[in-house]
């Protein structure tokens, strides 16, 4: 107990922190985060942040605040309830199908363009007050029907959303680029490689909109890059045409009904391909009702009594031709007048090698990914309907030029958990890890001097004082994803440092230090067959320098 | 511009920060907070936090975190959406009439006893994991029909809510007392005098429940203190007896029925007094049905067919005597057997000068107040219905003993704004003020040495670099509630310091410093007729010491 009292960093490790690693084998990342009590899922799509998870979240927030403050953005916090009336002004009340309504007057904010534009309009009176640059970090809401991956897609999620108001397009572009730079710093701080995918910027044109992704085979998003025009886009936005070599695909069909229940929609597409109902909705401009099973649906439309009032819409994917053989139509006694057919509509998700619809020339290359950020140049999309304008001394009244900038804060934790994990468990970047170093005493002894040095150097460590044996302690630290394990004891004053955190660079800092210091530090490195450092043995007087050097690349 | 570049604290003062003081005269505190762009009200009962307001809020949160962490509470963050099913388990779905429902499955959390109890039940497996002490700081929701005072009573408001789970009543009491101590430190840090009112602790008995109030004539709450036993309680919980001089009051009556519809409850009380149905519920231990108008009720109980199965309960307030003349009974043909009368039950709210029921001796003194915190010993009120229990090695399975502890974070800002304001505007305690010192240069000059010293001493100052004149600059700083104005120029190196922040002690720190240093600092004090220091003139080399000393008591 002597040691505990002396060190401020070893305050208390509640039992809640530790899962039992024997019981976590084979779990997905979502389950692992819960088993390790970083977070808790009270309900599908919802999250409770437990102490360690919240600390990690706070660390990411600190990074974001730092880089947003640096470029002159000011933090605010808008109410999470937003007035439904504002969403009528922007027109998004009708187009956003995932809004949570509260007491009929309010929505739970999924994003705040409407609120912030109304706020800026009301609180400003002169062009001299601009530019105005705001951000907030808070919960956002989406009535997500299929929550996924715990932190990856939820009904409630933590976002950093930023909004800029400039006096000219040029100034707004400069703001956009400064946010772009801040995002690069934020993602650089997190160490993991990321992809900036250009995104369709709607009304505005140009390329001033980017999605920020982590590439990962488990990712829900698929990014396509065209090998001709190099446009890169999310699968949800990638329309594609068939490869030039046309094939006679076997044809599958899926049935839907429109939300008014009047029409049976029959979507025909090549067997084995993934039908995207959003493509049907967007390309054909109809709303589909997804609350009924196909069996019930066909039974409903087969009812001979109501059949005369029903309509039937057949949609043929662009990959099908007139020679494609369609499945038998499941309903008998149809009137021809109730029957419409649309052809050459791309309604399935693109696959590797199909043709880019942007240039009609190149082939699309697919990668799986997780979107974690979006920067968007908005122009006057919101300032115009909200009449958020200023009077310029020379040119008179003009709309403010806006941008908006999102980062999925909770999603970043879920994504990094997923991207970085391996068979041993999680691996956190040092800057957001619950702590930097797990210290294990293999043999009882007085290691206070070393602990003092860790404290003095702001290296966040925890001593594992449990009854577990050495192997179990290492496994627990690795499972939780702590960047380093420091083992003291057996060969003291030689100590052992085992890196766990993942490195994404070949230019490792420790190798440079090793060149100049390995003799002085009595430093030996144990490498695996691929040449990766598995453990470092070093004299206690060099341990701090080696730990700092290792953490730099994690 | 030279000066701006050198000082990190003078980053940017956006126009949004400043209201126009000529246009704020006569405004209430609620309006003043908005005029000064600390906050913005998008809708009745909702608040947007603007940069300066959010910074003040963050400062209060920092104080709360410090003192909660010190007593071993760990910060978490529960989802703001809570499962309706949990509120059925506790029985509060029916009794809480101000819940916001979302998508039928969820509620916007007004408080988190249900969630935290369900969470602790699910994530713990051994008594060794206890005690567990959690708190969170986040938005809470109440479907408030009459929002009031901006930050004082809203549909969305920021709360610190803490929850403790202990293995025994004794341990839970110790936890309660440690929270009590932390609350004292939190409120002491804010400098304003506060009142701890004992509150009825329901099932538990004893006095282990306290409300924390700021006394203020504009307050919505009323607190009574007994001049004999000094018990202090909220009007909603203050039972009282009549003054010794008995009067023959005219008598009023109100009718209710019990929730099982079997019994008509007739409550008789002195005309002009406020009947409190909670007193009836608690003192007579019956549940009243409030979903029916008195007219319908009497019609129902007058039905001659069902009359034989009905019962009638007459409750006479303790202020009535056998000589009080009761209103005519509204229902005819009553059977005596169906008829019960209870006398001497206190069922109306107390008024100044009535007799305390705790000691039966003292008189009650009423004060208006604003409740800003509540500490509550819960016992097994939630752990029992949620079966949140542990198996103790000796004594077997037992329910955990809980406590809950709230602080209205946003309400504290509204309350301090209200309690501390005067005709010049707001007055913030130094620890939460937007900044400590407004610096004004009456004459151009090089004051960099002084600014450097302010920086080095972590005194948060802003240089007012606007085009306003000296008087206007002082008025703006006073209006916003900055504790001190520092005027440099005219008599430099003598500078002038004008205190604005309110002091609540006679033992002022600056007076002690003055004794020993007034000659060295060339320090003179200008006082008003009541002896209050209106301004300090001091040599620049003593200015930092004087500023620090003044801030200590603000």
Helix and strand topology:
The structure is a homodimer of 554-residue chains.
Chain A: H1 2-6, H2 29-35, E1 39-40, E2 48-49, H3 51-70, E3 74-75, E4 81-83, H4 84-90, H5 92-95, E5 100-102, E6 106-108, H6 113-123, E7 132-141, E8 156-166, H7 169-189, E9 195-198, E10 209-215, E11 221-226, E12 232-234, E13 240-241, E14 251-258, E15 263-270, H8 277-284, E16 288-289, H9 294-302, E17 311-317, E18 339-345, E19 355-356, E20 364-379, E21 389-392, E22 396-399, E23 401-408, H10 409-420, E24 437-441, H11 448-456, E25 461-463, H12 470-480, E26 484-488, E27 494-499, H13 509-517, E28 524-527, E29 533-539, H14 540-552
Parallel strand pairs in A: 3-7, 15-17, 17-18, 24-25, 24-26
Antiparallel strand pairs in A: 1-2, 4-6, 5-6, 7-8, 8-23, 9-10, 10-20, 11-12, 11-20, 13-19, 14-15, 14-16, 20-23, 21-22, 26-27, 27-29, 28-29
Helix pairs in contact in A: 3-7, 13-14
